[in-house]
Amino acid sequence: MKKSSYIGLYLCGLIATSLISSAYAETDNIDSANLYLAKACAGCHGVDGRSPVDPYYPKIAGQNEGYLYNQLRDMKNGSRNNSQSNIMKGIMTAVSEKEMRAIAAWLAKQ
Ligand code: HEC
């Protein structure tokens, strides 16, 4: 291989590495408060996560992060499946794995 090809490969590697790290940086900086609003969570659980619009809807702020994440995941994949959690299932189709983790971490701190 010519020397210039090696340099080209090296540059491609550098560009790929910087693209990957900027993708991670973006998800790490998710604005979880806005995400919670953008995904319409506040419409049922209240802006602060502790003033649900219906007495049969749960308060979710201040709950343990791991518990919150597990509930979101289970309602999304259908393993938590009862009359009320079916309401959540539709919502969760639009919430990704990373977003579930970000929202759970944010809610736990409220
Ligand atoms: C249309 C109303 C509605 C919306 C919108 C909604 N939820 Fe829910 N959520 C519910 C209901 C109802 C339950 C209770 C399910 C049950 O009784 O099993 C619930 C349950 C939960 C739970 C489980 C609480 C527990 O103690 O186990 C979490 C966490 C949660 N929601 C978070 C969210 C998040 C995050 C969003 C936005 C992505 C969201 N919800 C959007 C109605 C809603």
TrEMBL record:
<keyword id="KW-0479">Metal-binding</keyword>
<dbReference type="GO" id="GO:0020037">
    <property type="term" value="F:heme binding"/>
</dbReference>
<keyword id="KW-0813">Transport</keyword>
<dbReference type="InterPro" id="IPR036909">
    <property type="entry name" value="Cyt_c-like_dom_sf"/>
</dbReference>
<dbReference type="GO" id="GO:0046872">
    <property type="term" value="F:metal ion binding"/>
</dbReference>
<protein>
    <submittedName>
        <fullName>Cytochrome c4</fullName>
    </submittedName>
</protein>
<dbReference type="Pfam" id="PF00034">
    <property type="entry name" value="Cytochrom_C"/>
</dbReference>
<keyword id="KW-0249">Electron transport</keyword>
<feature type="domain" description="Cytochrome c">
    <location>
        <begin position="27"/>
        <end position="110"/>
    </location>
</feature>
<keyword id="KW-0732">Signal</keyword>
<keyword id="KW-0408">Iron</keyword>
<dbReference type="InterPro" id="IPR050597">
    <property type="entry name" value="Cytochrome_c_Oxidase_Subunit"/>
</dbReference>
<dbReference type="GO" id="GO:0009055">
    <property type="term" value="F:electron transfer activity"/>
</dbReference>
<dbReference type="InterPro" id="IPR009056">
    <property type="entry name" value="Cyt_c-like_dom"/>
</dbReference>
<feature type="signal peptide">
    <location>
        <begin position="1"/>
        <end position="25"/>
    </location>
</feature>
<keyword id="KW-0349">Heme</keyword>
